[in-house]
Design brief:
single chain; 34% helix; globular; 8-stranded mixed β-sheet; Rossmann fold; 8 strands; alpha/beta; 9 helices
Length: 251
């Protein structure tokens, strides 16, 4: 049963026939892990918590820097130098104190990926480098966890939902680059501040739809957004049967 406070807080969602009280209960029971508490993670986490997703995990080993504040809206100037996950938890708890926020002040690595991912229902990839995305993708395929991918650069963003065994994985989309420099962080790439907000909200939307099992997900479709032209378009992405991560020979 939803409490009176919950019915009041989530009223505008509950009156949607596609959600109702049963859908809201699904949100409250859901467990979502976000890899990254930066630009994408700020928007995605904020709206997932507002929607009432019951448990949110935040994975990020970085501390807040002044240059983050132009786009990472979970954080404040007064918190410079704090771990991002600690700052994010303060903001999210202030928004919705009934949500369980679990913080992991560490970067995703081969040593901890399985431990962090296996106990959540789905993963929202809000990382800022190829290496982390490849690792998140591989671990999600192994654990059969959905992964909602997002990325931004300059004036362009993209998103795709990965359902292991159903559609293509991130490795199908971007076959792994061999150069270490090619998979390094993109922290020096310019970015329009509002861009990760828009893509992060799209990721949150996909997560909520998956929890509800409503609507059409971005499975096998890469959504691309160009901010300068204010254009969205989709590319069809096929699953690679010979993919070294999700291919038929790797089951």
């Amino acid at each position: 049963m939803l409490t009176k406070e919950q019915k009041d807080r989530y009223h505008r969602q509950i009156i949607l026939p596609e959600i109702g009280e049963e859908g809201q209960k699904k949100f409250l029971k859901a467990k979502v892990l976000l890899i990254g508490a930066g630009g994408l993670g700020s928007a995605a986490a904020y709206y997932l918590v507002a929607a009432g997703v019951g448990k949110i995990g935040l994975v990020d080993g970085d501390r807040l820097e002044r240059s983050n504040l132009q786009r990472q809206i979970l954080h404040q100037t007064s918190r410079l130098g704090e771990p991002k996950v600690v700052s994010a938890r303060q903001t999210l708890t202030a928004l919705n104190p009934e949500i369980e926020i679990v913080t992991y002040q560490e970067n995703l690595t081969a040593a901890n990926a399985l431990r962090l991912i296996q106990n959540y229902d789905l993963v929202v990839d809000c990382s800022d480098n190829f290496a982390t995305r490849y690792l998140t993708n591989k671990t999600c395929v192994i654990t059969q966890k959905p992964m909602i991918y997002g990325a931004v650069s300059n004036f362009e963003g993209q998103a795709m939902t990965i359902l292991p065994g159903v559609g293509p994985c991130y490795h199908c989309l971007y076959p792994k680059l061999s150069s270490p420099e090619a998979i390094s962080s993109n922290k020096e790439v310019g970015i329009l501040g509002v861009l990760p907000g828009l893509i992060g909200v799209i990721q949150a939307t996909e997560a909520l739809k998956f929890i509800l099992q409503q609507g059409k997900l971005l499975v096998g479709e890469l959504l691309i957004y160009n901010a300068l032209n204010l254009e969205f378009f989709k590319l069809k992405i096929k699953r690679n049967p010979r993919c070294p991560v999700c291919g038929i020979n790797n089951k």
